[in-house]
Amino acid sequence: MERKTRQRQAILDVIVDAQRPLLAQEVLLMASVTVPRLSLATVYRNIKGLYEEGLLKVVHLPGQNPRYEPANSTHHHHFQCRQCERVFDLESCLGNMEQLAPSGFLVEDHEVILYGRCGACAG
Amino acid sequence: MERKTRQRQAILDVIVDAQRPLLAQEVLLMASVTVPRLSLATVYRNIKGLYEEGLLKVVHLPGQNPRYEPANSTHHHHFQCRQCERVFDLESCLGNMEQLAPSGFLVEDHEVILYGRCGACAG
DNA sequence: TTAGTTGCAAAAGGTTTGCCGTTTT
DNA sequence: AAAACGGCAAACCTTTTGCAACTAA
Predict the structure, then answer these.
(1) Confidence class of residue A11 from pLDDT cuts 50, 70 and 90?
(2) Which amino acid residue lies closest to nucleotide C14, measuring CA to C1'?
(3) Helix residue spans in A1-123 (DSSP H)
(4) Which CATH number is A77-122 given?
(5) B 97-116 near A (Cβ less than 8 A)
(6) CB-CB contact of B106 with A122 (8 Å)
(7) What pLDDT does residue B16 have?
(8) What is the rounded distance in angstroms from the CA atom of residue A99 to the CA atom of residue A36?
(9) More confident of the two residues B94 and B45
(10) Of A102, B53, B59, B83, which is the most buried if we count CB atoms within 10 A?
(11) Check: CATH 1.10.10.10 for A6-70?
(12) Is the pLDDT score of B94 beyond 90?
C-alpha cells in the first residue's frame, strides 16, 4: 500500500461514500464504474491493505459475508432488517457492558447487532 | 431427520456434552470416536437438521467459522478472550435494546459479543 | 420393503495466491 | 529502471449437493 493507484482510490471512495457497510462484491460493482477492468482480487487486496492501515473497519454479521465501512466513523452498531436484509447504522450505544462479564474478566470492546424490521418493512 | 441413527446420536451427544460451542471440524473429530467412518457431510447435514428442529443454536463470532451449542440453554451472549481465544457464555443480558433503533424500526432480536481478557488471562 | 441416511467425491461460494505483464515513482 | 500493483486463473477452505449403497422402521 505504498502507491496511489486508480484502483485503490476508487475502492476507498465507494466505501467512504456509501451510507452503509458494503460487501466485496458491491465494492467491485460500484468501483467498476470508475475503473472498468477492476478485478475482485484487487478489491480484496486493497481492502486488506486499507484495513491494515486503519482506514477501514470490517463489519461481520453472523452467518454473512464481511462488509466494509470507513474507520473514521464513530463507535456504533448495526441493525439488520430480516425482510429486506439491508444493514443500518445505529447512532447510539448502551455503554456499561462490563457488568455482563464475570468478575475478573476485562472487557475491552463489544459488538451489538439488532434484528427486526426496518421502518420501510415494518410499515 | 426422522430416523434415529448412530451418526445423529453421536453428533448430538458431543455437542450437548461439550462445555463450549464446537466447530463442525471439532464435532467430526469428537464424534468419530464413536462412529469411526463418520463424514463431514453427515456432520453438516445433521447439524442443519438438528438446528431446524430447534435442538441446536449457532454461535457466530465475527470472522470465524460457526460453532454449535445445545439450544436448551437460556438466552445468553458470549465473551471471547483475545489472548486465549476461548469463548465463554455470559449469564445476564441487558434488555432494552429497542431504544437503540430509529423510531419506526421494530426490534425482534439482538446479539451481544464482548471482547477482552478472561479471568485467567487478565490475571 | 422402502424411504430416509450415509459416504464419497464433486460442486459451490467466497477469499487468497502465483504468475507475469503494467504502472507508479 | 526498479519496485509495487493489477488482472487473470488457479488454489484454498468451508459448506453443500448428487448419487449409489446402506439401514432404520
Answers:
(1) very high
(2) A65
(3) 6-17, 24-31, 40-52, 119-122
(4) 3.30.1490
(5) 97, 99-116
(6) yes
(7) 96
(8) 51
(9) B45
(10) B59
(11) yes
(12) no
